[in-house]
Amino acid sequence: MRFATWNVNSIRARVDRVASWLERSQVDVLAMQEIKCKPEQFPLAPFEALGYEVAAHGLNQWNGVAIASRVGLSEVQTEFAGQPGFAKTGDPALEARAIGALCGDTRVWSVYVPNGRALADPHYAYKLSFLAELRQAAFAWADAPAIIAGDFNVAPLTTDIWSETDASAETHVTPESREAFHALESAGYEELSRRFIPEPNTYTFWDYQQLRFPRGEGMRIDFVYASAVAAARATGVVIDREERKGQGASDHVPVIVDFDEP
After folding, report:
1. Between vectors from CA 142 to CA 36 and to CA 72, what angle results, nearest 5°?
2. Which residues pair with residue 63 across a beta bridge?
3. pLDDT tens string 6-60
4. Terminus of the chain with fewer CB atoms < 10 Å: N or C?
5. DSSP class of residue 154?
6. What burial class does residue 186 get, using C-beta atoms within 10 Å of its C-beta: 0-12 exposed, 13-18 middle, 19+ buried?
7. CB atoms < 10 A from the CB of 247, how many?
């Protein structure tokens, strides 16, 4: 199975580019983040024409996650156990930040971890809570083939960000965020892109502003965690930097993992 995760930054704006990439890359399962639409607004036709089923979860023009699969798609869930909600005031509401499904024999989760915004913002506590509850929920899937992938909004190593003094990423580099990210390992998971691509300054995201991409000022914040059963099947990883180039590119690029069949 060929798996990929990609923060597409609006599927309606980039559906042609995503569909073209799927056709070229021959990915079997794609986890998407920031689809920025409701399920009924998702542009299904190009995916179906390529043989994919799609499960999407979105509530408005923000956030949103989806899974496209051509190896089966069943047992769809639009939240994980304990998933926290968010509201600056009043009762917290669940956001569209996680979707899970059985694809073939593998439980796949596409997650869009909260940004955190600023250290003094309630969104930062929300981010840490989201990661903590995700780790707790992950124990339930750890004994079978499972993948937890997406935009984690954490740069786990100092070499995963062009500058740790980047004011727009202050919540991505705190010891607490990094500890919460790595805690998934204690639930029985391995982050696969690091195994195959350990090189420093290998980024998956470049902001649109200030010519960050041509200047090489990016972050590595998109990752693929796999349970031990799934990780044992992994044979290689590609970070498709080419997809950051050209007109209409997302600010993130796909991370692709190849798995042997069981």
Report:
1. 55
2. none
3. 999 999 999 999 999 999 999 999 999 999 999 999 999 999 999 999 999 999 8
4. C
5. -
6. exposed
7. 5
Please determine, for residue 262, whether its predicted confidence score (pLDDT) is greater than 90. Answer: no
pTM: 0.98
Residues 6+ apart with CB under 8 A from 76: 55, 67, 99, 100, 101
Judged on CB neighbours under 10 Å (0-12, 13-18, 19+), 246 is exposed
Which of 118, 77, 74 minimizes the C-alpha distance to 94?
A: 77
As a whole number of Å, the CA-based R_g of the chain is 17
Q: Token digits for 25?
A: 């890359």
Q: Quick: pLDDT tens for 76-93.
A: 999 999 999 999 888 999
In the chain, which ranges are E strands?
A: 2-7, 29-33, 53-57, 65-69, 74-77, 98-103, 106-112, 146-151, 189-191, 222-227, 234-239, 255-259
CB atoms within 10 A of CB 192: 25
What CATH number should be reported for the domain holding residue 29? 3.60.10.10
Token reading at 259: 């798995």
How many structural domains compose the chain? 1
- CA 44 to CA 210: how far, in whole Å? 34
Q: Is the distance from CB of 65 to CB of 33 less than 8 angstroms?
A: yes
Q: Does the structure show a pLDDT above 90 at 118? A: yes
Q: Are 180 and 135 in contact (CB under 8 A)?
A: yes
Alpha carbons 241 and 128: distance in angstroms, whole number: 29
Say which residue the tokens 């069981």 belong to.
262
Q: Read off the tokens for 136.
A: 């707790």
| CA-to-CA dists, residue 19 to 59, 84, 109, 242, angstroms | 23, 32, 21, 15
Strand pairing of 98-103 and 74-77?
Answer: antiparallel
Tokens of 222: 């998109």
